[in-house]
Fold:
Amino acid sequence: MAEQSLHKAKVVGSTPTPATNMTDLVNPNIIIADAIDQDATEIAAILKLTWTTTYPNDAFGISYDDVSNRLNRFTPETIANRIQNQQELNRHYWKASIDNQLIGICCALKDESNQVFSILSLYVASEYQNQGVGTKLLSTALDWLGNQDIELGVAVYNLKAINFYKQFGFIENGPRHDEISNLPSGKVIPEISMLKKASH
Structure:
C-alpha cells in the first residue's frame, strides 16, 4: 500500500472483484477521463471512503482511527497540487465517472529516465465496484505505460485486489514497503509487490 500522498498513493484496496470474464459486468455509462485539479475534493472523499473500508484489519492490528489519521495528508490542496504538477512528476491521473459523479481514480508513474513504471493508486467507490470501473481505469493506465515491466503494491490481506491484478498478468513479487504504509501509531500496513512483465 503506498503513500507518498496521492502521487505515491497505493494501488490497493477498493479495486473491484472482476467477473470471470472481465467484460461481463462493465457498466456502459462509465467514462474515463484525465483528472483535473478541480476534482481534488471528490478524489479526497474517494480516498477517505476506500482507505477506511479497505485497510483496517484486526489480525494485523491496523485500526480504523490509525488509517483515518493517515489520510490527513490527502488534503484537496495536496491532491490538486499533484495533479497540476503531474507532468513534472512523471505521473498521470485518471478519473472514472458515471452521470458526472466521480466514482474512481487511478494514478500511474512513467519515469523513462530511470526505467520505473508503476501503478501508484487505483480506488473505486464501494457502491460502484464489480461494474468494470477498476478494469477500465487499469486498462487505461496500462495502455499509457506501454509494454514495460510494471510494478504495483498491494496490502497483503487485500485478496480481492491481488486476484484482480492477477487477471491482468501481474504476479506476486515478494514483500514491499512504501512510506505511505507507515501509520501515525507506528504500525505499518504490510504489503507485497506485484509485477507485470513486458511481453517480448
The two ends are 29 Å apart (CA to CA). The chain has one domain: 31-196.
